[in-house]
Design goal:
Blueprint lengths: L13 E7 L5 H10 L4 E5 L15 E2 L4 H6 L5 H11 L6 H20 L23 E2 L5 H17 L3 E5 L2 E7 L5 E8 L2 E12 L8 H8 L15 H8 L4 E2 L7 E6 L8 E4 L12 E3 L14 H9 L5 E7 H6 L9 H6 L7 E4 L2 H8 L3 H16 L20 E9 L6 E2 L6 E3 L5 E7 L6 H5 L9 H21 L1
Parallel strand pairs: 1-2, 1-8, 2-5, 8-18
Antiparallel strand pairs: 3-4, 6-7, 7-8, 9-16, 10-11, 10-15, 12-13, 13-15, 14-15, 17-18
Helix pairs in contact: 1-5, 1-14, 3-4, 4-14, 11-12
Length: 485
């Protein structure tokens, strides 16, 4: 139940800080601004606050935390920075990465002081992506809701004190600008009608665009292959920022996750099943081929990012897992929680699964080139049987692919987030193409693009952690500015 204190109230004429978006970044920004003495308006288009925290695992990373202290783990922001830049091959913004790692520990410790608790065995070096060299990565016992639960009591207290006005079920239709380009307020639209609200500073924290197929493709140059993002991630904040003169960057950093089994090859598709294709979670027995029926990656490469980039480079980011009866019998199922029996029979009811008594027949049924797939399988088997090095340097080759029936699973590259976002300075001000700031306008969270802090990769915790951390830093800074006026 949402407390009565969060109900929509009368909107005063002026606020020190207006925050657009009541999710992972917007909540801490509004909260810390209010705790610092600012009068805050928090606007959320959904009926409830929380945003992607309802959807996300909420995995965060930081050094110098109480959770590391419990386990005697020594760590530093510099080590965290080096790990992040190693994982994303220095494609993240170094200044924003520094800002994150230098303050992430403080963020996590604040959450811990307010009831946030982590899963058993955490922090860890990694989960689904390339690992850190130190254990600084953790997930709350209730995933993203653990973070939300830590914020709500303090947020409710600020609402009760009249420091924060919350408008849910309300959109920001427009940014108000003065003739010299300063942002001076917003136009809201909700059940109370359309109204203009003035503010000394406006913060866009309304998420990305990974649920808006048209905008996503326009900004990334890649179709939105799957419907997996939080439904409200429509890119509203991106369009607001553009309307005020802000620039959008980072679409070129798009990275594709592997292993989504689509309901059909139509875009955007629905996820029917998921095969992680992560050698640290499950050692691969099958081979992976592209739409030409050719292998394209070392399937047991220790870097998940290497496999992700391999998928990204394939036509339409499609890939097929090819295996035989012996591999099916001896390996763990490639799709977690599925039985071998289901994997063997799914071709009878789903178009992404196929089976045949020969490799060539399997290729025809799966829509692959039969000659190419035959050559691919033959090369894999010959090198294994003759004791020669694998074409892609694969080390784990437990069995040849030679026992019928043969199986294939069609998969699609996909993403949960948008990598393109509003360009911001290290002070989190929205910047124009020429690099000059849009006065009084700031942006935090996924609206600045996953590429800003995660780079062209999925770097552990570098989406949720900077969203919360930047919200805390910016809210505190804007409160100080309001008191000095």
């Amino acid at each position: 139940m949402w407390p009565a204190a969060l109900a929509r109230g009368n909107t005063p004429a002026h606020y020190d800080v207006i925050v657009i978006g009541g999710g992972t970044a917007g909540i801490p920004c509004a909260l810390f601004a209010a705790m610092g003495g600012a009068r805050v308006l928090l606007v959320e288009k959904s009926p409830a606050l929380g945003g992607t925290l309802f959807w996300s695992t909420g995995q965060i990373a930081g050094s110098g935390t109480v959770f590391q202290e419990r386990l005697g783990i020594a760590d530093t922001p510099q080590a965290h920075f080096e790990d992040c830049m190693r994982i994303n091959h220095a494609t993240a913004d170094p200044a924003l990465t520094r800002l994150t790692v230098n303050h992430a520990g403080e963020t996590i410790n604040w959450l811990a002081e307010h009831g946030f608790e982590v899963m058993d065995g955490h922090p860890v070096t990694g989960i689904g992506h390339d690992h850190f060299t130190a254990r600084r990565y953790q997930q709350g016992v209730k995933s993203g809701l653990s973070i939300l639960d830590a914020f709500l009591p303090s947020l409710n207290a600020m609402v009760t004190k009249g420091k924060i006005t919350v408008l849910t079920g309300t959109t920001v239709a427009n940014l108000i600008q003065s003739p010299d380009g300063r942002v001076t307020g917003v136009t809201t639209a909700g059940s109370e009608g359309i109204r203009d609200v003035s503010g000394s500073n406006v913060v866009i924290a309304s998420g990305g665009c990974a649920a808006n197929a048209r905008l996503f493709e326009e900004l990334h140059g890649v179709p939105l292959y799957a419907k997996t993002a939080y439904p409200t991630s429509q890119g509203d904040g991106l369009l607001l920022g553009l309307s005020a003169g802000g620039a959008i960057v980072g679409g070129d950093k798009y990275a594709s996750l592997p292993g989504l089994v689509p309901d059909a090859f139509q875009y955007p598709c629905q996820m029917f099943a998921y095969a992680p294709l992560n050698p640290s979670i499950r050692a691969p027995w099958e081979i992976l081929v592209n739409a030409r029926g050719e292998r394209f990656v070392r399937e047991d490469h220790p870097s998940v990012h290497h496999i992700e980039r391999g998928v990204y480079q394939q036509p339409a980011h499609r890939h097929w897992a090819i295996f035989d009866a012996a591999m099916l019998e001896r390996s763990e199922p490639i799709i977690p929680k599925w039985t071998r029996e289901r994997l063997a029979s799914e071709h009878q009811s789903h178009a992404m699964f196929h089976s045949a008594m020969s490799v060539e027949a399997l290729a025809l049924r799966a829509g692959l080139n039969p000659l190419a797939l035959h050559s691919t399988v033959d090369d894999y088997n010959r090198r294994l049987q003759e004791g020669r090095e694998d074409t892609f340097g694969r080390k784990m080759r437990p069995a040849p692919l030679s026992t019928p029936p043969y199986y294939s699973i069609a998969m699609q590259g996909w993403t949960l987030v948008s990598f393109a976002g509003l360009k911001v300075s290290v002070d989190l001000q929205v910047l124009r193409k020429g690099g000059e700031a849009v006065p009084n306008l700031y942006a935090i969270g996924e609206v600045i693009g996953a590429g800003a802090t995660s780079g062209a990769a999925y770097t552990n915790g570098m989406l949720v952690t900077p969203a919360i951390t930047f919200g805390r830093i910016l809210g505190t800074r804007l409160a100080r500015a309001s008191l000095s006026r």
